[in-house]
Queue: 2 jobs
Job 1
Amino acid sequence: MVGTEFQLGMKILQFRKPLPAPAPYHFRNDPEGNGMQGFLSEERRGAVLRSLRTDAGTLTRDYLSAAREVLQELVAMPDLIQRLPLERKAGGYSRNLLAGNDAVSVWAIVWSEGSSTSIHDHHCSCCFGVVSGSVTETWYRAIDANRAVQTEEQERKPGYVACMLPSGPNIHRMRNFGPGDAISIHIYGFDHEVHASSIESEYTAVSG
Ligand SMILES: [Fe+2]
């Protein structure tokens, strides 16, 4: 009978185990809104790292688009990020590790007004997004191993997300001209327990 077949079908559906839910990286789904106390919870860190899909390394298009997605999620929730107890360094910038494994590390950087990086390039892929304030990014072209000429400068505002590969061009400097602090999230393709930072070389600016 059709009815029996239907009932049998329903039973099969009922007994079929639901597929495990993917672990997307959604802070805003936190019902209590407190999953980010003390930086990220264990669960959140795991979700970030799984979302980054580093199985094939951190130089693939797949990885870069995953990193971009994670950053777009993060920069879309400035209130939550600003509530994190991030370290701040007067006159400088502070790096706060949010998540990391042997392939990748995720940092929140707080830029005090007037702070600046050196002119540098990276030994790994580098993706970042601006959460609040603004960060001015200046690009350079190396003329030898130690010196570089400025080529471009852009103010990066909240919501901005970018990715770069170590194959370059990736010589830049980040500065906060204010007003006030700025916060950005950075995802680097390095193990924070192996490398102190993402910086490969540093340069002195010269006029072209
Ligand atoms: Fe950089």
Note: The chain has one domain: 5-20+32-205.
Job 2
Amino acid sequence: MSRTVPRPEDKLIELVEFLAPIPEAVPVARRHVAEVLRGWGLGALTETAVLLTCELVANAVKHGSSAPAPLTGRARQQIVLTVRHRGGLFIEVWDPGAKGLHPQVRNAAPHDEVGRGLHMVDTLSRAWGHYSPAYGGRTVWCELALPAGTEGERASAR
Ligand SMILES: Nc1ncnc2c1ncn2[C@@H]1O[C@H](COP(=O)(O)OP(=O)(O)O)[C@@H](O)[C@H]1O
Ligand SMILES: [Mg+2]
């Protein structure tokens, strides 16, 4: 796994992490997001951002692993987490999963232990969505509003 953590004095506003598609990717992603938000002065968003990152990475591990052609070699074995600070806080998770599967909010019954992740993403984010890049796989993303007074803050879209 490689990492690039921008320092506050850098003009970098993006963190990109390559994660193995295994359950251990979830705590690794959690640590990286908490660390980078601290560095960006966005500690107030840590709790929510970490929660949503964990759901998106867990989904990439659980639902995104059946890579078809044309993805080959390394691309089939990676999840890519991107965190971007630009007008809002964007969390994107790319997985090499097949085209036919679509992330969708499920109506979980009170005792269901699955089917709550995207409901949480939908409730706690300002916006979320997914798309299939031309090179394959799928990206699921969500956006959190920056705290009032943060540089680059944009008015809420919701
Ligand atoms: N990265 C993904 N790739 C394909 N399908 C996904 C992905 N993330 C979520 N989904 C679909 O959306 C559904 C809802 O996701 P979620 O609410 O996290 O529930 P769960 O992961 O417990 O099934 C999943 O059951 C799955 O069918
Ligand atoms: Mg899930």
Note: The helical segments are 25-39, 46-63, 117-124.
